[in-house]
Amino acid sequence: MYIHIPWCSKKCPYCDFNSHESPRKIPEKEYVDALIADIKNDLHLAQGRKLSSLFFGGGTPSLFTGSSISTVIKCAEKLIGFTDDVEITLEANPESVNLQKFQDFCKAGVNRISIGIQTFNDQQLNLLGRLHSSYSATKAIEIARSAGFNRINIDLMHGLKEQNVSNALKDLQFAISSEVEHISWYQLTIEKNTKFFNDPPKLPDCRLISEIQDHGCQLLARYGYEQYEISSFAKQRKRCTHNQNYWEFGDYIGIGAGAHGKITLNHEQTLLRTFRTRQPNDYLKHKNRGEKKSIVVEVPQRPLEFMMNVLRLKNGVPLKYFPERTGLQESYISKIVTNLKKEGLLVDTETQLLTTSLGFRFLDTILDRFVRSHGES
Ligand code: SF4
Predict the structure, then answer these.
(1) Tell me, what's the pLDDT at 265?
(2) What is the CATH number of the domain that holds 65?
(3) Average pLDDT rounded to a whole number, residues 321-331
(4) pLDDT band at residue 287 using 50, 70 and 90 as cut-offs
(5) In terms of domains, do 242 and 305 share one?
(6) Containing domain of residue 356, as a range?
(7) Where would a tag sit more exposed on the chain, N or C end, judged by fewer CB atoms within 10 A?
(8) Residues with beta carbon inside 6 Å of ligand 1?
C-alpha cells in the first residue's frame, strides 16, 4: 500500500511530485480521516491478501506526528492485515525530524526510514532550494539510527549543476561512510511544471553523466551496495520491498491525495489503475467517500507497461510474471522477445526476463519495440 502525504515545508525548484507548500496548520486530523476512508473503500482490492509493505511517501510524511502515522498503520493492519515480515517505510526530510519524532515513528510501527538528503554539499543544497544543511543531513542519519532504525535509505542526486566526477563521488563517499543500508542514487532531470524548467541550471552533459554513473556504480559495488535497479543500491537483503514490488509489476493500493494504485483482477483478466484527486483541498472534500477514478489498462498497452517496470531490475523477473500480472499469454510477446535475445539485448533464458548489460544501457531501444508492437507477436 502506498500512502501519499502531499505537503512539504517548501516546494523545491526541481520537484514535479504532487507536493504542496504546507499551510500554516496542516489539516492533519482531517487528512488521516480521509486516508482511513480510502482504506475502507479499497478493501476489496486486497482480494484477501495481506499487506507486505506500507510506504508513506510524499511530500514530506515526517511533517505528520507519530500518532497520526500510528492511526493509519493500525487501521491498515486491522482491516487488511500484515504479513509477518511487513516493511513499513516513511519518507523524512532532515529539517522536519528530531530524536523524539523518529522514536515516535518507530513506536508507531515504522521499521524503515528514507531520508531525502540529495547531496552533502551545502552549496548544492542551496541551489536545489533545500532547507537542510549537510550537518543536519548527517545528524538525521545518526538520530534515525539511535532511535532504533536498522533499515535506513538515503536519497541522493547526481548530475547537479557544475558537478564533476570527483564531487559526485564525494557525496557517495559520505553516504557510504554513514553506513546506511540503502542508497537511492538518481540523476537530476529537468521536468515540466517546475521552476527549473523555466530557468534551467547548467547541468553536466551526457558524456560526463555517464562517467559519473560508471564511477559511482563501481564505488558502491566496492562497498557492498548491490545495484538491483537503475537508481537503487542495497546492502544484502536490504532492498526496498515497496519499490521491488512496484518494479515487478506487483499490485499496490494507493491512498491519499494524488495517489495511484495498480491491481490485476486475474479472474477477469483485467488490469486496473486507480487515481485519486491531486489537490489536497479537493481530496479532503471527498473524504467521506474515499473516492477514486479507475481505468482499465487496455490489452495493447500492457506489455509496454510491464516491461517499463520489470526491465529496470538488474535481475529482471520470472517470465511467468507476464501472464500472471498482465492477464495476457506469453505468446503475446514471444516474437519480440526472441528478436531482442538474438540482438543481445535480452539474456537468452527460457524462464527469466532480463536484460544483458548492453540491454540495461539501452533500455529505451528495448522499450521502443513494445511501443511499436501493439501486440504484434
Ligand atoms: S521535499 Fe521532496 S517532495 Fe517536497 S518539494 Fe522537495 S523534492 Fe518535492
Answers:
(1) 87
(2) 3.20.20.70
(3) 93
(4) low
(5) no
(6) 300-377
(7) C
(8) 8, 11-12, 15, 17, 19, 58-60, 93, 116
